[in-house]
Amino acid sequence: MRYPTGGGLNAAARARREAVRERAAVMFKESKTTTQIASELRVSEKSVRQWRRRWAAGGTAALASSGPGGSDCKLDGGQRKQLAVVLDEGPVAQGWADARWTLARVAEVIERRFGVGYTLRGVSYLLHRMGYSLQVPARRAVERDPEAIAGWQRRRWPAVKG
């Protein structure tokens, strides 16, 4: 299952937050108090004090967004696309007997194919960033017969139900 977005703040949300900090810089120039700024911008006084220190040290440019958080991905865009293709092919295509991806298996595929080492937690973050989510397979018996179940539900279940 893939998420439509990778999660976290998008560029628009970062821009909105940066605009608030820029408004705070204007208020710093007007010598407004921390309490006044926090109340008007609806932020904490602690944030205003931190912004004021950064503004005093580097001006309005010091309040600019530093971009998306988190560490940089070890795989480039092309490698992530290749990994998505491999994951969509399934683990059987990579030599495993059952059809379940585990973090350890994905880490092994990344190591073999791209020569990049990932921890299990790093693989989890990578997959989430790529839009994959945790899936828990339904456990069903191999002997399960869907036709027999459907027939039982049609004929026998109404009599049992009453």
Account of the protein in words:
The structure is a single chain. This protein is mostly helical and about 160 residues long. It folds into two domains: about 10-65; about 70-160, no CATH class. The chain is about 55% helix and about 0% strand. The protein has helices at about 10-30, 35-40, 45-60, 75-90, 105-115, 120-130, 145-155, 155-160. Helix 1 (about 10-30) crosses helix 3, helix 2 (about 35-40) packs across helix 3 (about 45-60) and helix 5 (about 105-115) crosses helix 6 (about 120-130). It comes from Micromonospora fluostatini. This is Transposase. It holds the Pfam family HTH_33.
Write the SSE topology.
Elements: H1 11-29, H2 34-41, H3 45-58, H4 77-89, H5 103-114, H6 120-130, H7 146-155, H8 157-161
Helix pairs in contact: 1-3, 2-3, 5-6
Keywords:
single chain, 2 domains, 57% helix, Homeodomain-like_sf, Transposase, Winged_HTH_dom
Largest sheet: none
Low-confidence stretches: none
Roughly what percent helix? 55-70%
- The global form is elongated
- Determine the number of helices (DSSP H or I, runs of at least 4 residues): 8
Quaternary structure: single chain
What structural class do helix, strand and pairing data support? mainly alpha
What is the terminal-to-terminal distance?
A: 40 Å
Output mean pLDDT: 87
Q: Classify the beta-strand content into a percent band.
A: under 5%
Total domain units = 2
Count of individual beta strands: 0
What's the helix-strand series?
HHHHHHHH
What integer value in Å does the Rg equal? 27 Å
Organism: Micromonospora fluostatini
Domain Winged helix-turn helix: 98-154
Protein name: Transposase
InterPro entries: Homeodomain-like_sf, Winged_HTH_dom
